[in-house]
Design brief:
Layout lengths: L1 H21 L3 E6 L1 H10 L6 E4 L8 E5 L8 E7 L8 H10 L7 E6 L3 E7 H10 L2 E2 L2 E2 L1 E4 L11 E8 L4 H9 L3 H9 L3 E3 L2 E2 L12 E4 L3 E11 L5 E8 L1
Antiparallel strand pairs: 1-3, 2-3, 4-6, 4-9, 5-6, 7-8, 10-15, 11-12, 11-13, 13-14, 14-15
């Protein structure tokens, strides 16, 4: 990850330099949460950059050097289909990558009932509009979306867990339905990130609001501590992004 971070930082500096020399905006991304956080923390505060994902509150962001929000090459596409089909984030991402679409050209995917909005780089929008008519085995129609009418995501699961502690291994064990020993092995194998940074310390204590991503299991947010059980264990509210 360190080498990848260094390469990303070099690309960001190249984009900034080119933007300044030619007086034109340059863009990187879409970036995942770790990448955008890393650049925010390591680029100089004076750098003429901004991060934007197509709408307020976006998770996957592009970095723009010398750019204003309206200049970002982002298109929002709406996929509509029969509401009886429960399409998820992974269905869209899998279908798009199977078409040869690179992950960095796809931003947030907001799934709702009978419609999903996908943010993409402008250069692939025309291809998706004309060439995609199915997601998996489900027929879809594709058009431009109204970003003032985005679907409420239906792939967020609200959960209540009982934990022995807020240690990372206890949290991962509950999330992945594993023993503490197997959860610890998962963490030590660099399969877990906390707030978008890889963590290998099994005893790390989590705080409210922490985002824990477990490869192959999804993203979990420790929303709040809501009390204790009769046996003195912690009860916590968790959001699972499926």
């Amino acid at each position: 990850m360190i080498d990848e971070d260094k390469l990303l930082l070099d690309k960001a500096y190249d984009a900034i330099s080119l933007s300044q020399r030619r007086n034109i905006p340059r863009f990187l991304g879409f970036l995942n949460e770790h990448e955008s956080l890393y650049l925010r923390q390591n680029l100089p505060k004076s750098a003429d950059v901004m991060f934007y994902g197509g709408y307020e509150g976006a998770t996957r962001l592009m970095m723009g050097a010398g750019a204003e929000e309206e200049l970002f090459p982002i298109a929002a596409l709406e996929f509509t289909y029969k509401a009886e089909f429960d399409l998820r984030h992974r269905d869209f991402l899998g279908a798009l990558t199977a078409q040869g679409i690179r992950r960095e050209t796809v931003g947030d995917i907001l799934t709702g009932e009978g419609r999903t909005v996908v943010f993409v780089r402008e250069e692939i929008a025309s291809y998706l509009l004309t060439e995609v008519d199915q997601i998996g085995r489900v027929g879809v129609k594709v058009g431009y979306a109204d970003i003032n009418d985005l679907p409420v995501p239906n792939d967020i699961e609200e959960l209540v867990w009982t934990l022995s502690s807020l240690r990372l291994d206890a949290f991962v064990a509950c999330a992945a339905h594993l023993s503490r020993e197997k959860a610890a092995r998962l963490i030590k194998s660099e399969m877990v990130t906390v707030d978008h940074v890889t963590v290998t310390e099994v005893s790390k204590m989590l705080k409210d609001g922490a985002t824990v991503t477990i490869r192959k299991y999804g993203k979990f947010v420790l929303a709040a501590q809501i009390g204790t059980s009769k046996k003195g264990k912690l009860r916590v509210a968790v959001r699972h992004y499926r």
